[in-house]
User: What shape does this take?
Amino acid sequence: MANFRKNHQRNSNPFTGLTLRVFIIIVILSVLLLGANSFFQNLKTVMIEDSVSNATDPIERDYLPISDLELEVVHHKYYSLGYNEQYEIPNWVAYIITRDELKIPNVKRYRDYIRDPSVSTQSAHYKDYSNSGYTRGHLAPAGDMAFNKTAMKESFYMSNITPQKKAFNNGIWKELEENVRDWAFSNERLYVVTGPIVKNIDLRIGRNDVGVPNSFYKAILDNSGSEKKTIGFIIPNEKSDQKLENYTVSIDKIEQETGLDLFSDLYTESSPELEASFDVKKWKWSNKRHKLRINKWNKE
Assistant: This one.
């Protein structure tokens, strides 16, 4: 009992109590300050998100493809898509990517692939890809949708996913996606339409018979500023060591391969020649990133 009292008396030193009170006050102030910083950061983020683009309003999406194909058009908050029930993949995904979005710190990457509740016939299931030899390849990339949690989660809807070979998804397609983000930052605002070339699909995977595309396209329009420009890509769904420039095509070429009419409402405000021609010199290319693909990404 004497030892207990002795220890207890030692702990009741008034300086210890004072120290504890000071510590508690410091903790409370720190929490309040961090909370205030978080509040203002979140407020800033919301203000930026509200002004990033008209992508949040489907009514104003004048950049969507026009198609005679029987596709279900689905609007999510940050992108739209044309869903192909026959192959359980989208024929196209369209969105705007802006410099302001890219300036926002990335949210944590979402991990779960979700069936799209907005597809009336139900989208493919994530298990359709299991043990198939194909990765779940995003069309609206998670990296482009990393500016808030809603956009990030939407990018993981299975309606935004297509079967891609790992060497393609983690290689040349990844390099193209990163270049697009660079171009969006440099040019302030880009319109993007991307998807698979669905003709001549003969391979299916999963219980829902998901079609495996042989190649993919990406069409890009810079419609801001004095120098308006376009560029397109058609890339085989396979590993490649070639430079991205070798896969560049005109918007006209993509339209011929897909049956889509791209950016037609925007061309009324720009030169119609943008559809037929492009100039690779007007887009900055990363030789360093290409070497990284060759030496690392293609070997993973």
Observations:
- Residues 2-42 form one domain.
- The first strand starts at residue 66 and ends at 67.
